[in-house]
Description:
The protein is of the alpha/beta class. The chain is 42% helix and 19% strand. It has 15 helices and twelve strands.
Amino acid sequence: MGFKMGIVGLPNVGKSTLFNALTKTASAQAANIPFCTIEPNVGEVGVPDARLDKLAAIAGSKQIIPTRMTFVDIAGLVKGASKGEGLGNQFLANIRETDAIAHVLRCFEDGDVTHVDGRVDPVTDAEVIETELMLADLESIEKRRANLVRKLKGNDKEAQQQDRLLAAAQAMLEDGKPARLVEVDAEDAKAWKMLQLLTTKPVLYVCNVGESESVEGNAHSAKVAEMAAAQGNSHVIISAQIEEEISQLEADEAQMFLEEMGLEEAGLDRLIRAGYELLHLETYFTVGPKEARAWTIRTGTAAPQAAGVIHGDFEKGFIRAETIAYDDFIACNGEQGAKEAGKMRAEGKSYVVKDGDVLHFLFNT
């Protein structure tokens, strides 16, 4: 499994420019006008992972298949979106389908690119978006709780659980805080997720800065960093302009360009890594002469469920997982060397897969 990240922000903050660069397509029309993106553009990218290339080289794999990440470029939100302003209802529905939200914030000064409110203030921009999402959630909760009245009178246990969770979310939102701050017990986790409230989505702030500020950021991005830390959220500094230039270059040229700019890696890599941390994701590998492949799982996933990411039958008929830690696979120069060195382990159903594990699953058909 990969994950789906919605790219949101006010008009003209660089969302579509960033989307184009990240997905290396021109499918999102980047224009200096509000609402240039009406339908959500969806782009899939391979998740860069240097470990996969090393594993493939050792195993002589004919094909390298990275895990995938989906970006959804959602049209620019405006104040009043929760009430349908600026095609707000459609935009909010698109956000609901994502796993996480990347708030792209304008942290650059450019007189040629208009700001919807005529000023550059990323913290206020973030507050505008959060407020619209909170208002939309409140409206949704009020409607849903009204629709549960009949079932509650009949003592429907599922309806009681849903109403209890909605009430907790409503109280938090009415206190001016996003629903993600509600503490949810393990037994309620599944039902809570099913509510699909907008403000329960994990948030990553993307500070879009000018080219010359791409390494250290600027005063605007520093304010965003302070806000993110106070909220317990994270942020990344990216220059959408640089990412757009990199997307047009071959790999070797792109690396040289990054070095000239004083950057260790592309913004895509930083964004994906931040997204993985945000959603508590990790990667395991399957390696052989045919292909070397990366698979994404949530941290804490047991071996049978990890196998199920490949195919449901692997999980149903799970017997054991032959496991080699990534470092051992490299140090022993492959599977055979790891076996001879006693570094291959047979793990059962209770084994929690570790990031970087090289796995081979045995199962009953």
